[in-house]
Amino acid sequence: MELNGAMYFATESPVWGGGRAFYDPHAIGRVLARAHLVTAQQFADIAAQEMYREPGTDLDLVDALARGRAVLGEGRYETLVCAGQIDGLPVLTFTAPWGMDDVPWVSPSAAYVRFLASGLLSASAWDVEAVASYVAACPGAAGYWSTETITDLLLDGTPT
After folding, report:
1. Burial of 133 (0-12, 13-18, 19+ CB in 10 A)
2. Which pTM does this prediction carry?
């Protein structure tokens, strides 16, 4: 699916060794995304893991569903966003409470780019060049990653 807003890379992931992907729903642009049908409890567990919290606690989704946004904390991935609907069901995600232009951008690692782009490719909605071009243009990746380098990474696993 495509969302209004922008994806950007910021902060430093100790797991991936580079910038993390964030969603700014207020930025001008479009975000390529995968949608998965999950229960509220499954969403809460996924969000908890990304927030470095213990899974198993339900999230209060009322503000996110009614107002489009709920800030649960100051950290990364602690802001819930309702980005629209598909077939009458809410499209919920999580991101940072700050905007794209409020933090320094950080280039993502090759492993993270491969993981993220492969996920987009598995949706079968876009081809390799479209995904590579999209990721390469995102703030944080732009100027560090090129469409060609990401294409090589996706096709044979090694950036040139």
Report:
1. middle
2. 0.91
